[in-house]
């Protein structure tokens, strides 16, 4: 495995992980090393699995391209707390924003950044949640898409 590219290594890891039948599959940045075609093929495969077996895939990522037609729900988690949830395709019709996932997510991330900067500027120092010492989600933002 040490002689293959990052993308090839990721493909092997994904295949090994998908050998087991799942009802719920948690994926964190699983497509980061894949090329566009491999990424879209994997998402198509996962969509088929969900539809055929009634499985659920929770997919956390910062790469929003192509997820508008894939995801059925969006969950915004900040410091281990669920902040907002949306359903697809309703999200594109109920919000007064351009109809791309990036344009929907961007204001959430910008508002969080501004809040953290304001707290730091007011002498609050670095913002930490009560869960910072115990939660694997601490000090991180996650967008989870699930099907």
Core attributes:
single chain; alpha+beta; 4 helices; 20% strand
Helix/strand layout:
Elements: H1 6-18, E1 24-28, H2 36-53, E2 56-60, E3 73-78, E4 81-87, H3 90-94, H4 101-124, E5 141-146
Parallel strand pairs: 1-2
Antiparallel strand pairs: 2-5, 3-4, 3-5
Order of helix and strand elements from N to C terminus: HEHEEEHHE
Order of strands across the widest beta sheet?
1-2-5-3-4
- Low-confidence segments: 129-142
Q: How many distinct domains?
A: 1
> Quick one: biggest sheet?
5 strands, mixed
Measured as a percent range, the helix fraction is 40-55%
Distance between the termini: 32 Å
Radius of gyration: 17 Å
As an assembly, this protein is single chain
Strand portion: 15-25%
The counted number of beta strands is 5
Estimated structural class: alpha+beta
The averaged pLDDT comes out at 77
Number of helices: 4
Shape: globular
What's the quick description here?
The protein is of the alpha+beta class and 147 residues long. The protein contains four helices and five strands; from the N terminus they run αβαβββααβ.
